[in-house]
Amino acid sequence: MVMPGGLSTGLAFLPSWLNDSRDALAFESLLSGWVRNSGWKSAGLVWPVDAGPGLIFHARPDGVERTTTPPLELGDVLKTLKGGAGTVVWQVPNTAGRLYSLLTPPGRPMGVVWADRGSGEPWSDADRNYLRLSARLIERSPALSALIGPVIDPDRLQQRLADASVIAGRMAHDFDNILTGIIGFADLSTPQLPAGSQVQKFVGEIAKVGQRGIQFTQQLHQLSRSGHGKPLAGSVAVAVGKEEARLRQTVAPGVQLFSAVPSNLAHVGMENGPLGVVLGHLLENAAEATPPGGRVVVSARLVELTPADARGYLGQVGPGSHVEVAVQDSGPGIRPEVRTKLFVEPFHTTKVRHRGLGLAIVYRTLYAHRGGVRLEPAPPPETGTVARVVIPPAAARPAVAPSVVASIL
Predict the structure, then answer these.
(1) Would you put residue 384 in left (φ > 0), alpha (ψ -120 to 50) or beta?
(2) Under a CB-based contact definition with an 8 Å cutoff, are residues 106 and 46 in contact?
(3) What is the pLDDT of residue 366?
């Protein structure tokens, strides 16, 4: 069935993929060891396959080579795999054919793995099952996470945010009362002070600080309420237009905003209120990441997701029709050290005066509406980041996500 080493040796090697090894050399060593223990001539990996390959490995028993050219047949193979096939054998001269399987790390774009061996050793059902099992372990490997960013358990993330939302709601209510008193007395005091005096300016600054505090408590309220599904029909075009108009008042000079949302796009199963909150946070992040002279582009379309496509989003996404909204900036992109913390540390932020609540609110709102989010690099030669969200159309009338019971210890 397999060359020296045997299927049993290959199976014994598989737990090695879950070793806590977090560097590129560890991944290459594991890939070569996988080939060697499985008894193959070679194997390979491409990730991702939809947004332009970023990683292409060709592994042999004695080492691994990084290349820049994916297999010529990749497009045809991918169509078959995304259509529901567990594995695909592509005919290659002087071999048993190249055996392919999908890599679908949760919340990340998909990739593929393949294996090659001699023509006298045809692929059996056991071999196919072995490659699929290998792919499931590789996509959760800490060593692969070091290369592509963290692989996240959506349900665990949702539970953590549900717990945090309870505390956020209580804090927001208490701070609202305090800030209302601060702002109110500052406003009452200002007219009683000499116009233009230093004291009046100080009291004015107190009022401004209070207003910034109110903006923060509003985000806490959004996080607290974001877990409630409101699946009545909402319009992406209306929500984008409203949030763009708001953002144009505060965006940095020289940053351009462009929208490409069809007016006849299907409505989504999310009310305009929460839909605007989701799109507003994504647009704010994109605008802040874009330097003067750059641009933020919002686009939307109707897409049909396969089960493999659905796994590429963080949230509760299933196969079928979805409205996809993409927000692309022209900034420097997400630094690797930051990418490893996004969603893993739900409130991580690199921005002054921010608390990292935006993406947490986006994720929790989408989760409650059977939607999802994914962050990916802008396709070359462009720079920046694309935030991509998918939401079921209103016609589908999906059941909202069940409430997550928060536990406060």
Answers:
(1) left
(2) no
(3) 93
User: Given the DSSP bridges, would you call strands 111-116 and 42-47 parallel, antiparallel or unpaired?
Assistant: antiparallel
Q: What does pLDDT average to over the chain?
A: 85
Instruction: List the domain boundaries for the chain.
Output: 6-148, 154-225, 236-396
Q: What is the pTM of this model?
A: 0.71
CB atoms within 10 A of CB 4: 8
Determine the 3-state secondary structure of 256 from DSSP.
strand
What is the pLDDT at residue 2? Answer: 40
Average pLDDT rounded to a whole number, residues 59-83: 92
Q: What are phi and psi of 303, to 5 degrees?
A: -130, 160
How many alpha carbons lie under 13 Å from residue 42 in its C-beta half-sphere? 13
CB 210 within 8 A of CB 186: yes
pLDDT confidence band for 1 (50 / 70 / 90): very low
> Is 6-148 a domain of CATH 3.30.450.40?
yes
Q: CATH number of the domain at 236-396, please?
A: 3.30.565.10
